[in-house]
Amino acid sequence: MNETSLRLVWIYPDLLSTYGDQGNALVVERRARQRRIPVTRIDVRSDQPIPTSGDIYLIGGGEDRPQRLAAERLRRDGGLNRAVANGAIVFSVCAGYQILGTEFINDLGRPEPGLGILDVKSVRNDGDRHVGDVLADMDERLGLPPLTGFENHQGNTLIGPSARPLARVRIGNGNGTGDGTEGAYCDTVFGTYMHGPVMARNPLLADMLLKLALDVHALPRVDEQWYEALRAERIAHATQAAAARS
Amino acid sequence: MSGNPEPLSPRAKLAVTAGKAAAAVSRAAGKGSGSVIGGRVALKLDPDLLARLAGHLDVVLVSATNGKTTTTRLIAEALRASGPVVSNALGANMPAGITSALAGGSDSRYGVIEVDEKYLAGVARDVTPKAIALLNLSRDQLDRAAETRMLAEHWREGLSGTEAVVIANADDPLVAWAASSCPTVVWVAAGQEWKDDAWSCPSCGGVLQRPGDDWYCGDCGFRRPPPTWALHGDYVLSPDGVAWPIQLQLPGRANKANAAMSAAVGAVFGVPPKIALERMYSVQAVAGRYDVVTYLDRQLRLLLAKNPAGWLETFSLIDGPPAPVLLSVNARGADGTDTSWLWDVDYTRLAGHPIFVLGDRRLDLAVRLEVAGLEFRVCDDLDQAVRAAPPGRVEVIANYTAFQDLRRRIGN
């Protein structure tokens, strides 16, 4: 972490902020401030260079055309790749997750190169769009409670040998490849299909990013009352809905 | 501009009668006004019915993400200055609801029709409108609706050859792009507070520059069209440079924008702005929206806000602190089932208000407000919230089905 303040970079809100993605930045910011960790939030528009000195980078979901534009601009800029090479933390959602991979299908139906900082490759799912509540078990190495979120995507994402699934779905589609995986991660780079936003429904993910950035194993407790209530309700809802479907 | 009503064919007459019967059955069964089911039955019997019913009318279509029901009402009031109007005033805005509304308009001169964004191009093809008002486009129900720019593209393609005069908001880049393919456009500077769906050029994808009220694309040169009408504070400026005062019972900047658009529509049909605006003053509440009701001996103002742009406009019209604010959010089918949009709304604008939270998704709201650093109280139902609210008129803001729930509870 930077000596004076944690630098939280939100990438391209003008292109990739369609599903309340600002929420992830707000939750990370809030939970840092509650621990008296100074935070500087840097919103980077797609005509501005990506700073390479950030601690945590967030990249969100978006529609198909903005996704292609974002990938083109991020490849041209190169700043995010340099930041990751220096050990920066990246958390990506949906369209942003696909961009971090090696390739995805763009709005013109053609393969579009990603940034190649996460070993995943995305294709277009020919069936129905994946929409609805998701419940998944986090990868055991992360030591986190179940993942709850809302998915809304047409993509299927295959995980390559150098990445691990972020979670295994109990309810919902996740990566959509039929292997039960959801999201992916490798070292400090994370990707998920979960909206909600994902940090609001899984605040310990925000804490995980903070711990990585600060290089600590624990953080002071904060009031989890409303997060816990929301998690319990959404998990119960997803479970009941799945039971009703089967 | 209108001719004599063309007599309906026997098949069309049968369709109208069958539709009315279905609506009556639906009403009797307690399933709402029956306007949609009536239209659905009628359209099934005669698919061309919409075109036939509109044949004798001067039709105005109104579409937008926000404000279409209110603007439809304002335009209808303005045009009544020059002839009888038929309108889908209750907001049933898909082909079946529109058919049902027009079926009651055999003696009318004008048809003022609110149309769902997705159906605009198709309805415009069917009814050959004289005017089309396009107010704004922004994100709404993304789990089931089309992407916002795709809607703009759909409008652009569907309306490119229209013979209608298109009255369009020059301050919304998506609307401007959609309308700029139309042969005849009246541009109105009606404003748009919400900007987060139009940072990219709808034409080329470049980043839009937005100095002051202006906007332009630095890459392809697409820019804000020069408006001939403009909303300026409490006035609307007409093309001859006269400033007309806008006096409404409806609150807020967004309704002044709706009135400015409506005055421009009125002028297309020869209604002078003065008369149009005076007539708009009579509109008090629209399908329960903006209504002030008494409940449990308290005054409640009912405000509908369905998406981030709508919430933003609503925050700007409520009474200042310490007016109590009650927020209710559901995520049923008609609302969109994804509540992520709550995080696009800047709730810190409510700082200083006592806040009460209810609705199916009150816990999503609770986390949202907690992260915004606001004080709030989560309530089980309306009665509990109203009883807990400190003195003063309660501003009640709800999304679509939450709003319906509240009206049902209040008996309004």
UniProtKB/TrEMBL annotation, chain A:
PROSITE patterns: GATASE_COBBQ. Substrate binds at R129. Residues 8-202 form the CobB/CobQ-like glutamine amidotransferase domain. Its EC number is 6.3.5.13, 3.5.1.2. GO terms for molecular function: carbon-nitrogen ligase activity on lipid II; glutaminase activity. Pathway: Cell wall biogenesis; peptidoglycan biosynthesis. Keywords: Cell shape, Cell wall biogenesis/degradation, Glutamine amidotransferase, Hydrolase, Ligase, Peptidoglycan synthesis. InterPro entries: Class_I_gatase-like (IPR029062), CobQ_GATase1 (IPR033949), GATase_3 (IPR011698), Lipid_II_synth_GatD (IPR043702). One of its GO terms (biological process) is regulation of cell shape. The active site is at C94, H195. Belongs to the CobB/CobQ family. GatD subfamily. The lipid II isoglutaminyl synthase complex catalyzes the formation of alpha-D-isoglutamine in the cell wall lipid II stem peptide. The GatD subunit catalyzes the hydrolysis of glutamine to glutamate and ammonia. The resulting ammonia molecule is channeled to the active site of MurT. Forms a heterodimer with MurT. PANTHER family: DETHIOBIOTIN SYNTHETASE, LIPID II ISOGLUTAMINYL SYNTHASE (GLUTAMINE-HYDROLYZING) SUBUNIT GATD. This is Lipid II isoglutaminyl synthase (glutamine-hydrolyzing) subunit GatD. It comes from Streptantibioticus silvisoli. The lineage of its organism: Bacteria, Bacillati, Actinomycetota, Actinomycetes, Kitasatosporales. The gene is gatD.
UniProtKB/TrEMBL annotation, chain B:
Zn(2+) binds at C201, C204, C217, C220. It catalyses: beta-D-GlcNAc-(1->4)-Mur2Ac(oyl-L-Ala-gamma-D-Glu-L-Lys-D-Ala-D-Ala)-di-trans,octa-cis-undecaprenyl diphosphate + ATP = beta-D-GlcNAc-(1->4)-Mur2Ac(oyl-L-Ala-gamma-D-O-P-Glu-L-Lys-D-Ala-D-Ala)-di-trans,octa-cis-undecaprenyl diphosphate + ADP; beta-D-GlcNAc-(1->4)-Mur2Ac(oyl-L-Ala-gamma-D-Glu-L-Lys-D-Ala-D-Ala)-di-trans,octa-cis-undecaprenyl diphosphate + L-glutamine + ATP + H2O = beta-D-GlcNAc-(1->4)-Mur2Ac(oyl-L-Ala-D-isoglutaminyl-L-Lys-D-Ala-D-Ala)-di-trans,octa-cis-undecaprenyl diphosphate + L-glutamate + ADP + phosphate + H(+); beta-D-GlcNAc-(1->4)-Mur2Ac(oyl-L-Ala-gamma-D-O-P-Glu-L-Lys-D-Ala-D-Ala)-di-trans,octa-cis-undecaprenyl diphosphate + NH4(+) = beta-D-GlcNAc-(1->4)-Mur2Ac(oyl-L-Ala-D-isoglutaminyl-L-Lys-D-Ala-D-Ala)-di-trans,octa-cis-undecaprenyl diphosphate + phosphate + H(+). The keyword ATP-binding applies. Keywords: ATP-binding, Cell shape, Cell wall biogenesis/degradation, Ligase, Metal-binding, Nucleotide-binding, Peptidoglycan synthesis, Zinc. The active site is at D338. Residues 65-188 form the Mur ligase central domain. Residues 304-403 form the Lipid II isoglutaminyl synthase (glutamine-hydrolyzing) subunit MurT C-terminal domain. Its EC number is 6.3.5.13. GO terms for molecular function: acid-amino acid ligase activity; ATP binding; carbon-nitrogen ligase activity on lipid II; zinc ion binding. Pathway: Cell wall biogenesis; peptidoglycan biosynthesis. Coiled coil: none annotated. GO terms for biological process: cell wall organization; peptidoglycan biosynthetic process; regulation of cell shape. The keyword Membrane does not apply. Gene3D superfamilies: Mur-like, catalytic domain. It is an enzyme of class 6 (ligase). Forms a heterodimer with GatD. HAMAP family: Lipid_II_synth_MurT. The lipid II isoglutaminyl synthase complex catalyzes the formation of alpha-D-isoglutamine in the cell wall lipid II stem peptide. The MurT subunit catalyzes the ATP-dependent amidation of D-glutamate residue of lipid II, converting it to an isoglutamine residue. Belongs to the MurCDEF family. MurT subfamily. This is Lipid II isoglutaminyl synthase (glutamine-hydrolyzing) subunit MurT. It comes from Streptantibioticus silvisoli. The gene is murT.
